[in-house]
Amino acid sequence: MNETTNVIEMRHIVKDFNGFKANDDINLTLKQGEILALLGENGAGKSTLMSILSGLMMPTAGEIKVRGQEVAVKNPTVAKDLGIGMVHQHFMLMDSFTVLENIILGHEPSHGPKLDFTKAKQEIEALSDCYNLNVDPLKKVSEITVAQQQRVEILKILYRGADIMIFDEPTAVLTPQEITEFIQILKELAAEGKSIILITHKLEEIKRTADEVTVIRAGQSVGTFKVKEVSDNRLAELMVGRHVNMQLDKPSTELGQTMLKVDKLKVKNRQAVWALKGLSFDLRGGEILGVAGIDGNGQDELVRALTGLQHVDSGHVIIADQDMTNQNVRKITSSGVAHIPADRQKYGLILPFSVAANLSLQTYYQAPFSKYNVMHHEVINKFADDLIDQYDIRTKGSAEPVGDLSGGNQQKVIIARELSRDSNLIIAFQPTRGLDVGAIEYIHQQLLLERAKGKAILLVSYELDEIMQLSDRIIVLHDGTISGEVKPEETSDEELGLLMTGFKKEGTTLA
Ligand SMILES: Nc1ncnc2c1ncn2[C@@H]1O[C@H](COP(=O)(O)OP(=O)(O)OP(=O)(O)O)[C@@H](O)[C@H]1O
Ligand SMILES: [Mg+2]
């Protein structure tokens, strides 16, 4: 095959869900050995299109050619036989199995009637070495990090012979350092002749990684562009259909009273190891305090301890002058704490419930949603319709199960619910994970509006850009302690990077 061979051609793809066209005449071409980015706003139809290519669903209309041959990708086995493998956004690994067992599951090599583990282990090690994946086949999946789990997913499709590889938002769960390593892996795979489709909302990643980018909007093709020839602004405009302001305007605000005081907080994690080792800081109304740090340095435990999801071993959490240490979730939320959790499907939503039910999940038992213990569905539905409008949640209606929404639109449901609630303190953990640039702009503006209203906002994020743009002050978490406190206008990515790896800032006054 020469360099310009098309390995995939998708033509006029249509996918109709009961009259709603998630894909409405989309074209996509993938060339041998290239990295093609697939870009589109939340709900544009990217995951749907890739599910069709990997045999998870059949298109309503359209044609797919693989290496020039027209094919019907009826199921994932057909896709596998065609050399197509997909790494899904939510990993599909068994926690209690080893890496090796996960990789060979369903494709076990045998030696007579017996499983040939030795052969499998050798093959996996060879693949892991070849692409620098650094995975130990004998570790249990529950013992390895998210980034390593992702490498297991990559090994899984390599082991099954994939040379056309699809990644659906692979970097949403990775830290900046892990993203750099992941991009390196993608480039090595492409250099070896693999052809890759990469879904990401991060324009900067597309710039670093892809040769071409195919843009879709509202289920339709917008076009395919050479990455070198198109600017970030133009890409943002193409995908959302309007100008996106990537620079935020952050007016100064007056600081109010202390809304959150964390005092010598000590918390053990699930493995009974100290995750927070005596953390102290405070946060006032009208202020955004950014918490920066590499994933796994106590962020999870901090947010869980503040919201009542985790037992505090010692120290105090004072919210608006009330001691809320080890109080239950309902008491904390109803006292005026909004919480945008990092894992939207686990803690933020009830997937089979409707959009309306999810939007009133924290308030359905209060007036005006309920009276004398009877729920008022008209009020709940009207409230939902207003939020759907205001936050541009792409849904077929407030009665649709929230699980049918695209990933980014599920996130918008949580944000709409939490920001529309009466609160003094907003705890936002990775609030824009998986959102497109247009939605990020909107959410950032909303957070600034809440700040202008005098609310206190704790922003925990792995996105340094987000922390730098929004925060008034930044604390850096390292190994359960604060390695430094800085102001965004007085620091740099380099200084933050050093603090994140544990270099203490001189003159730090915090415990
Ligand atoms: N199984 C389904 N039933 C009904 N509607 C669906 C189903 N799957 C997806 N949709 C709808 O199709 C549209 C496209 O969804 P898709 O998941 O492809 O978007 P996406 O581009 O991947 O968005 P995101 O960036 O938010 O992940 C959405 O409006 C979604 O609600
Ligand atoms: Mg998607």
TrEMBL record:
InterPro entries: AAA+_ATPase (IPR003593), ABC_carbohydrate_import_ATPase (IPR050107), ABC_transporter-like_ATP-bd (IPR003439), ABC_transporter-like_CS (IPR017871), P-loop_NTPase (IPR027417). Keywords: ATP-binding, Nucleotide-binding. Residues 8-243, 260-504 form the ABC transporter domain. Pfam families: ABC_tran (PF00005). This is Sugar ABC transporter. It comes from Lactobacillus xylocopicola.
